[in-house]
Amino acid sequence: MPEQLTDDERLNRAVKSVRNYLRDKVELNRLLGGQFESNDEEIKQALMHALMDWNTSPPFLTPVSLSTHPAKNLLVQAAAVHAIQSSALWHSREHMPSSDGGTSADDHAKASEYGAWLDRLTTEYERKKGDIKVAQNITAALVGMGVPSEYSSYYYVFGQWW
Questions:
Q1: DSSP 14
Q2: Tens of pLDDT along 31-75?
Q3: Which of 67, 74, 137, 146 lies deepest, with the highest CB count within 10 Å?
Q4: CB–CB of 67/38 below 8 Å?
């Protein structure tokens, strides 16, 4: 069983997991000047949106938190979707192609690629979320007679529990 974590430790580990999922790393972001595309506060916001989405999507079950979410991999994926949506909105707003002397540049022409990824990730996430929530609902209706889920309330990622 994993060690006891504070809420802040769990949130920081979740931020690292989302950042790893997105491959949002300084050393990989050469076109962004070696900066993160999403800062820690933006990823924390994406995680909170992912939790709110889970808690407000039918079937309505007991609300979950970072520590009790039944499918941490889906939580990371949902947070990534929210982070990509935010980035896509920003790139759309900043889209302004320029040219000078026969050379053109547009470092914000990413919205369409982001949109394609959002479609794929959202479709997969919604299907899996629905399947898990329906299974949880059926298990709860059976009052302990159901088969235990393979999903754990703990998640081991990159050598750490959260």
A1: H
A2: 666 676 789 999 999 999 999 999 999 999 999 999 999 999 999
A3: 74
A4: no
